Amino acid sequence: MKKINGIGLLAILGIVGFILMNSIFIVNEKEQVIITQFGDPQGEAITTPGLKFKTPFLEDANYFEKRYLEWDGDPNQVPTKDKVFIFVDTYARWQITDPLKYFERLGNERGALSRLDDILDGETRNAVASHNLVELIRSSNREAATEGVIADIVNDSLENISVGRDKIQEEIQELANKRAEDLGIVVLDFRFKRINYAEEVRRTVYDRMISERNRIADKFRSEGQGEASRINGEKERELKRIQSEAFREAETIRGKADAEAASIYNSAYNKTRQARELYAFIKSMEAYSKTIDKETSLIISTDSEFYKYLNSIDN
Asked: What is the pLDDT of residues 135-157, one digit of tens each?
């Protein structure tokens, strides 16, 4: 009898424990819960963490994330307003703000991501098609960070924008939230992850970039050649000036030397007969060195003054 009573007590305790296990659930700080009975929501969402209770076997706890969630769009080829086909890759961050609406309209995260695909991809296509390419790749009107020729060329090629990428992203986020306001979710952030030309457009763009760089190189080359010509011209002028001054100075020195030599010769010539003869000899030697070389032939008479010293050399 006692053994039977012990088994019955254990059975009762087991049943009570099983019932308690099905009536108690825990909500942590990163979760929020909707209680459903046969699939229908019961009351408001449970968003506070702690130990919670529900009707066992009849009610179920449906858990949803309270943290920020990720949406990653598929790259799509979209035409811009100026008819340029580009690939656009996007991403966003979103959050469940109303678990009850979220459960009723979307059911689960897979349903929410599918709905976000429709909303964000659609708004992205509309935004891209409504703006020129330059608005999508630039955020502000700016000047080139470099200086000189490159800065002038780049600044000339930079088209002014009125909207910019940042504002377009904000517009897409705002429009997406309007469409999602009855879904119990909110888009917290939207960004273009990558924007690139379609393959058939990319080659044309590269050719244009090469042409632009060649134009910059030609301008540098032209300015370099002009600067080189200017430097060479200044060098030639300076060289001629130096040569002219050097020639003038040399002629001045030579003239002074000749005058001084003539003065010395004249002074020596007037002193004695031997001095006069020495002067005549030296001048004759200078005349010989200037007029006679190995291939020179002279025909002169024996009584010539020019023959006087040649004859003395032979003797």
From this structure: 888 887 766 555 554 444 444 45
